[in-house]
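Q: I'm writing up a methods section and want to include an example of the input and output format. Could you take the sequence below and give the corresponding predicted structure tokens, formatted cleanly so I can copy it straight into the document?
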Amino acid sequence: MSKYIAKRLLLMLPTMLGISFVCFLIIQLVPGGPVEEMISKAQSAANMKGGSHTLTQEQIEQIKAYFGFDKPLMERYFIWLWKVLHLDFGNSFAYGESAWKVISSKFPISLFFGVSSFFISYLVCIPLGLAKAVKNGSKFDSITSAFIFSGYVVPGYALGILLIVFLAGGSFLDLFPLGGIVSDNFDELPFFGKIFDLAHHLFLPFLCYILAEFAFLTLLMKNSVLEELGKDYMRTALAKGLSFKEALFKHALRNALLPLATRMSEIFTLMFAGALLIEKVFDIDGMGLLYYNAMVHRDYNVVLGIIVLSCFMAMLGRLFSDLLYGFIDPRIKLG
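A: Here is the clean output for your methods example:
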């Protein structure tokens, strides 16, 4: 097992190099970067002071040198890569501070939404999908399917708008705040008051986060269990005298969990994920909004930092998923 993990970790190195180079190349070649933006601002400021004015070539070269664009592309890449290896993602052009500091400031809220919604979805969807498979075609299955499909077809941001209208001071009830993470007087509240205030603000966006994942996982679990129940080994187990409950939990359930183990790899990427539209609806300054603003303003260091961290966590997630495969089904040999 240790050899397998070491081999997979070593294989991550060339993969990360390839991903980082391609992303760096694409982002650097996209027009409208910080150099062009700075030149445009400088020319606009000069024109406002009086008359038409064009920056000299020397001034343009100084701006390029300030952002490091006076060097060849490959040299810029290796300089950036060397800094990344030392956990330095450079400075954010838009925020004027360390790119890592900008990313880490948005990280906690995305970590909370991503990881908590992930675990709650699994804790509810596995038993619910199992119950739907066992009672397939029953009234319980039909009623729960109606709710699940309704949730699946409604986008999270659309549900957010509806929840705000009906429950957050819109045209009906005023039970929750319109947006944000905490109240203005959060620092003055006692400890348990802070917990309640935080939960009060995050409840509605949390529902929107888990909506699509909840529906998908429930249906995946149900279909996986139904597939296992129809296989020959289940009929053999029942013919040998095992009760249906024993055959289900001793044999079918373990195999049915394998497709869900694949989705478990997403727990790592969810730490750096964000939902832009949900964050816009509820006025949450998270990773989704940060990534969007960084792309709009060509904030290269922030964009590259998020991409590198997300790719690294995605590869760790795939490794974690493969290890889960071996844990769930001992017949799978890793090596």
